[in-house]
Amino acid sequence: MNTVNTVQQAVAALKQKRAWHWLEYLFWLGAAASVFLLPSQHALLTQIAIWSLFAISLDLLLGYAGIVSLGHAAYFGFGAYVAALFAINFYGEPVTGLLVAGIAAGLLGLVTSLLVLRGTDLTRLMVTLGIALVMYEIANQMSWLTGGADGLTGMPVNPVLGFFPIYFMAANAYAYVLAVCFVLFFVAKRIVHSPFGYSLRAIKGNPLRASSIGIPNNRRLIAVYTIAAAYAGIAGALLAQTTPVVSLTYIDFQRSADVLLMLIIGGTGYLYGGIIGSALFLVAQKFIGNVTPQYWEFWIGFALVVIALFARDRGVFSIYERISGALRSRKAKP
Amino acid sequence: MLTILFDGIAYGMLLFVIACGLAVTLGLMNFVNLAHGAFAMLGGYCAYVLVNFYGVPFFASLPVAFMFAAMIGLVAERTLYVHFYSRSHLEQVMFTIGLVFMVSALVDYFLGSQQRFINLPGYLQGRFDFFGVGIGKYRLLIILVCALIVIVLQLILGYTRFGSRLRAAVDDQRVARGLGINVNWVFALTFAVGCGLAGLGGALGAEILSLEPHFPLKFMIYFLIVVSVGGTSSITGPFLASILLGIGDVAGKYYAPRYGGFVIYTIMIVVLVLRPQGLFARGTAK
Amino acid sequence: MNALETVGLEKRFGGIVPTNDVNLKVREGARHALIGPNGAGKTTLINLLTGVLKPSKGRVKLGGTDITTLSPHRRVSLGMARTFQINQLFGDLSPLEAITLVIGEREKLGTRFWRTFGSDEKLVAEAVALAKQFGLADVLEERTSSLPYGKQRQLEIALAIAGKPRVLLLDEPAAGVPEAERHEILETVAALPKDVTVLLIEHDMDIVFGFADRISVLVDGKLFVEGEPKEIENDPRVRAVYLGERTDD
After folding, report:
1. What is the spatial distance between Cα B143 and Cα C124, in angstroms, rounded to a whole number?
2. Per CATH, the architecture of C1-79+165-249 is what?
3. 3-state SS, residue A291
4. Nearest to C196 by CA among C227, C231, C159, C169
5. How many CB atoms lie under 10 A from the CB of residue A245?
6. Which end of chain A has a smaller Cβ tally under 10 Å, C or N?
7. From first to last of its 286 residues, what are the pLDDT tens digits of chain B?
8. Which structural domain range is residue A279 located in?
9. pLDDT tens digit string along C175-185?
């Protein structure tokens, strides 16, 4: 076997993992096209895009670093409030608002990660929940700043970068949100396929061995937690910029639970799970949720139980694989 | 002020009775059961239906609530929970949250979403004076019943064969199996009793805890605090944690209503960060 | 200066003392074996050396530098590597990915977050060469969890060597390897670079006597006796300690 060939092959094989599948091109082109082709659905699509970004931020934690968070909405809501307050008090240009919200949420993530990363699985779970609950209480109590239960209104939304108006313009707003999501998705994809991203996977897969090959586990996890928090904060800011009110629902437990559900439904560890999961969740909610709220809650609970029982990492696709696998083996029998 | 202490102790003991099942489940099987509050709720609603609709005496409804919750727990454990013992914590969380949603939705659908109150017998209502301290009769009953339960639990754990098997299994499951202890059976029974106690607590305390479909989610954090702060290697740990939590919560709501929840959550975070295995646990965390 | 040294190392767990006043000295370039009956405390000692456990008393020195308070990953960057008795691998990664990962971390390139993993040809070339050395060339891109046990064991050692350590702690390298594949592991161990100091934990006397130039015997947490293979082989005390073990073979 020619050594050079093998090395070339090896390099190519590794690069291949990051390459864009034709389905991905199709997806993003389709998403861009939907700006023009699906005008009646822009509000829904904007929601899906924002939640997708939020879910992707959680995927960085859960799917790549193995950290289960029951309180990721803390950063989402924090980013939203920061963006709103920044726009109200300083400057209403949206992209600036996103940057400010991202940095603020990232800092919050950095500080809280030091708390989260101590202890076992269960204590981590509880600390993430606790942090979100504390943030909720703070938002609730500081109603002079946050509007409390009534929420924060009157946030100015200037034209994006000074020339692209999005205020009360559904198509433009969707295009803006989609563009932001794409850029952040692209960055996330690069991060995930970088040496840093691989070290996260190593930490998730075998933290003992990871530290035994020289990976400083905690430092890497703090870094990814900060990035995930920043992403969540930007998602929150996007929602603030496209809806009239920023309220406590941005930061309550239901929001943390919902994004976790979406990611689980779509599958963790491949970035598209967040997108697929939120699309399925929001579309289903639109149809089922309108019948009766209890109806929706029941079926979401049922979906969770089923996924937990039968699916592994790939959410709904695992169920699909199981069923098609079962069908295939049936056919093989004479 | 002493009244607040008294009320806080009552609240805390109630939390303990409900949460002790969760502590044992976690310590025994390393299983994160976020649906534990649902069993308390089911017990509460069972007593509610019996007392308000069928005129069953309050005291009689308590053991029924216990059995009702215990039975559901046993069935759920053997059919569903058993699949998750070797799964990751995430899957356990998913499963149990899913269960909570389903149960909450069902309760909401069949019994409505308003808070429900059990018609307490006349002699339990009101309060009397004891050396200047106002003692609520109902809360006194709660303290007495819970204290009784705690004593019985300690006796069972410390002096019966079942108790020693349970303690062995909590300490080291593999060794316990190796000694011939049927860990699965021990666990099924313990789980059922834990659920039963939760149901009993839910029925007993329906007046203090708010009985409505989203009770499990609202109180989940409290039970988790009891378990994580108190640790899972003893009864006294969660007991003390519950009392502290109960007093802290009642006092907080009275003296600083604006900050109540905030203080508790912050304390929880501080405790978990400083001592991940709990304030009262001995040895290392799992 | 010794490549690896412990001074009065002790570890207590309540009433149990798995490591008791251990003064181990491993010379540079040595092929040093650590033997002892089951429960002697060998794995605890390894964990103390690598930093997974913190000692109750005493110090650990790597090439003269006191590393007692350093975390495991810091010790790795100072040149220490270890393998585990039970394989500790990255199940979802391929051998190529895992080895490349280790080399990248060694070269302090692990924090790169924009470049694609594997785009550095030099790293990958080294990884491929190392994989070949360990007989993994034909399974370079398979998932580690799907590899046969023997290959996994080879990878276990390869990952440690990839870090170009000064000191390598080998914890029972042949553990669980089927008879037919044992010689491959033994050849691998024998072929380890001469400039790497190797501390071998082993049960199997054939491996120990075929490989080591110095042997330390650990019994009940204490260093019982130390010396050259011939001395140890003929020492009646060692035989007594091992008598129960050897007749079971």
Report:
1. 69
2. 3-Layer(aba) Sandwich (3.40)
3. coil
4. C169
5. 15
6. C
7. 778 888 889 899 999 999 988 888 887 777 888 899 999 999 999 999 988 888 888 888 889 999 999 999 999 999 988 888 878 778 888 899 999 999 999 998 888 888 888 777 777 777 777 776 767 788 888 888 888 888 888 888 778 877 777 777 767 777 777 777 777 888 888 899 989 999 999 998 888 888 888 888 888 888 888 887 887 777 888 888 899 888 888 887 787 777 767 777 887 888 888 876 665 554 443 3
8. 40-288
9. 888 888 888 88
Of the candidates C122, C28, C83, C98, the one whose C-alpha atom is nearest the C-alpha of residue C200 is C83
Question: Does A17 touch chain C if contact means CB atoms closer than 8 Å?
Answer: yes
Query: Is A15 in Cβ contact with C115 (below 8 Å)?
Result: no
Out of C90, C96, C109, the one facing A195 most closely (by C-beta) is C109
Pull the structure tokens for residue C116: 């694609």
Are residues B97 and A309, on separate chains, in Cβ contact within 8 Å?
Answer: no
Task: Look at residue C196 in the predicted model and tell me its pLDDT.
Answer: 92
- What residues of chain C score a pLDDT lower than 50? 247-249
Nearest 5°: the CA angle A237, A242, A248 is 60
pLDDT tens, position by position, A45-99 = 999 999 999 999 999 999 998 898 999 999 999 999 999 999 999 988 999 999 9
Residue A39 CA to residue A206 CA, distance in Å, equals 47
Domain count within chain A: 1
What single string gives the DSSP state of each residue in B54-93? H---HHHHHHHHHHHHHHHHHHHHHHTGGGGTTS-HHHHH
Q: What's the Cα-to-Cα distance from A42 to each of A48, A53, A183, A263, B71, rounded to whole Å?
A: 10, 16, 19, 22, 49
Contacts of A65 in chain C (CB under 8 A): none
Residue with tokens 């013992």: B85
DSSP three-state, residue C187: helix
ipTM of the complex: 0.90
Query: Which subunits sit against A, judged by 3+ Cβ pairs under 8 A?
Result: B, C
CB-CB contact of B245 with B237 (8 Å): no
Give yes or no for a contact between A289 and A308, defined as CB atoms under 8 angstroms apart: no
Cβ neighbours of C84 in A, within 8 Å: 208-209, 212
Phi, psi angles (nearest 5°) of residue C81: -140, 155
Q: Range(s) for CATH 3.40.50.300 in chain C? A: 1-79+165-249
CA distance A202 to chain C (A): 6
The tokens of C51 are what?
């930093």
**Cβ(B206)–Cβ(B45) below 8 Å:** no
